Structures are given as structure tokens and as C-alpha cells.
């Protein structure tokens, strides 16, 4: 009796796996190949990622993205529009540069507001996230990642999946775990043993079920970001305006303070990582 029950269970499990795999492998996906920039909502009122320079254009040295985030975009953390989960790039450095709006960055537990026109560098191995801190005001920023491998596909896939399914909260969690793992990202909010277990067991299962970390239909055209209404046009105009000397001097002071705090946060993160390795 026990053997028969086990056999039936195995047959049912196999049918579920095969059915899910067939559905995932044959799903009709939105084709974004002719788009410059991918919105994560059909209404185009949320977040948009534009590939400006692809990794293969730089020989794998880096890739450059433009990110636009409205103040109404739901983030992973409540009250922090556009925020991704706290994460670590295993082998890549990431540079954020504020273009317009209020760019907030959590760098190893230290929250920083990045002045417009300034940059903050997040070295590999440092936990971080970012969000739009300007209320209803849109945020625009450059995102430069080096080296360029893994490539820019992660942000394209995330935005396209959100668009396809009507929000990331409706995307199968195994699909998201596979994306993070294949693009060299670690979920920092998750205990390390749990994340390692997820990579060891969930990633192979996700592949077996037909999930992929790259869908050709989701690859967009690269190019300069397109204006988003009047706000974006004003931001572009503001970016070309000559800054008065006094204002520039004040900006230099603010930049110095931000860089000092960022450097301290990075140094602490690297010390924490070294201590963990020694253990």
C-alpha cells in the first residue's frame, strides 16, 4: 500500500513538473526588442530602465543604465518608492549618479542623500539599496556597473517580468531567486545559510520547471533615455544650466560630506566582510 501511494505521488509530482515546465517554456512573452527603455507598468507610470551602453560595447569593462522612478512606484520597503531588496553584488562595483529628484542610498546601513550631479560608489560585497526620497517628485539617475559581466540583462529582465505579470509581487519567487543567483547578486536581508540553500536547491528546481534568467524577447534597444513628460524635459534643461560659483562651492562642501560618510560606510562593510572570512 505504501509503495503504491509513493508511486502515485511520484507520478503526480512528475506531471506537475512537466506541466509547469511546458507552460513556462511556451509562454507568449511581451516583445520589447524595438523599445528604448522598459517600463515596469503598462500605464508607464512607475519605473523605467534604459540601457545606454551595453557591456558588449565596452568589451565587458562596464555597462551604463538610466533609471527613472516616479514617486508612486511601489518599492520593496514600505515608504521607499523603487527600492529593491537590500543586496550585494558579488563581483561588481556599482556607481549611482543623481540627475534629478532625491536619490537616497542605504550603504551598509548608512542612509545617504546624493546631491544632484554627484556620484556614490558601492564596491562589490557591500550591502545596499536605493529609493526615491522626493515624495511625488520623479527620480532620475545613472547606474554604472563594472566590470560588465554579468551584464545589464538583470534590470531588463526584472522590469519586463513586472510588466508581463502586472507587478513583481505576481512573479514566481523561484524566477526571482534564479535571476539574483545567475546575475551574481546576494539577497542581504536573507540569512546567509538560507540564501546558500536557496541557490543550491531552488535554482536547479527553477531551471527544471522551465524558468530562465534570460528571455530574448525582453532585450530592449540601447540608446539615450526618452523624455517622460514635462518633468523630465525640465530636468534635462536644468542639467545643462550653468551653476553659479557660490552654489557650486556649497555643492562641493555637500559632496565632501557625503563622500566622507560613504567612505566610512564602505570601510565598515569591508571590515565586516573580512571579519566574517576570518571566522
From TrEMBL:
Residues that span the membrane, as ranges: none
Listed Pfam families: Cupin_2 (PF07883)
Protein name stated in the entry: Cupin type-2 domain-containing protein
Every Cupin type-2 domain range: 83-141
Alphabetized InterPro entries for the sequence: Cupin_2, QDO-like, RmlC-like_jellyroll, RmlC_Cupin_sf
Gene3D superfamilies membership: Jelly Rolls
Amino acid at each position: 500500500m505504501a509503495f503504491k501511494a509513493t508511486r502515485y505521488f511520484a507520478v503526480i509530482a512528475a506531471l506537475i513538473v512537466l506541466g509547469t515546465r511546458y507552460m513556462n517554456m511556451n509562454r507568449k512573452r511581451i516583445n520589447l526588442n524595438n523599445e528604448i527603455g522598459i517600463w515596469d507598468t503598462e500605464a508607464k507610470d512607475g519605473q523605467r530602465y534604459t540601457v545606454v551602453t551595453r557591456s558588449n560595447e565596452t568589451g565587458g569593462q562596464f555597462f551604463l543604465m538610466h533609471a527613472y522612478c516616479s514617486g508612486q512606484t511601489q518599492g520593496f520597503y514600505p515608504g521607499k518608492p523603487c527600492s529593491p531588496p537590500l543586496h550585494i553584488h558579488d563581483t561588481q562595483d556599482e556607481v549611482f549618479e543623481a540627475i534629478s529628484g532625491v536619490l537616497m542610498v542605504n550603504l551598509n546601513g548608512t542612509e545617504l542623500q546624493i546631491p544632484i550631479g554627484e556620484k556614490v560608489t558601492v564596491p562589490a560585497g557591500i550591502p545596499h539599496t536605493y529609493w526615491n526620497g522626493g515624495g511625488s517628485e520623479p527620480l532620475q539617475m545613472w547606474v554604472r556597473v563594472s566590470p560588465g559581466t554579468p551584464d545589464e540583462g538583470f534590470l531588463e529582465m526584472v522590469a519586463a517580468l513586472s510588466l508581463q505579470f502586472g507587478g513583481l509581487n505576481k512573479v514566481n519567487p523561484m524566477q526571482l531567486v534564479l535571476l539574483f543567483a545567475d546575475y551574481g547578486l546576494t539577497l542581504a536581508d536573507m540569512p546567509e545559510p538560507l540564501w546558500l540553500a536557496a541557490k543550491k536547491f531552488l535554482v536547479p528546481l527553477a531551471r527544471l520547471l522551465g524558468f530562465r534568467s534570460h528571455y530574448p524577447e525582453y532585450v530592449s534597444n540601447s540608446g539615450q533615455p526618452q523624455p517622460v513628460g514635462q518633468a523630465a524635459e525640465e530636468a534635462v534643461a536644468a542639467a545643462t544650466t550653468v551653476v553659479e560659483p557660490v552654489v557650486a562651492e556649497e555643492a562641493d562642501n555637500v559632496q565632501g560630506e557625503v563622500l566622507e560618510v560613504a567612505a566610512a560606510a564602505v570601510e565598515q562593510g569591508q571590515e565586516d566582510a573580512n571579519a566574517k572570512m576570518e571566522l
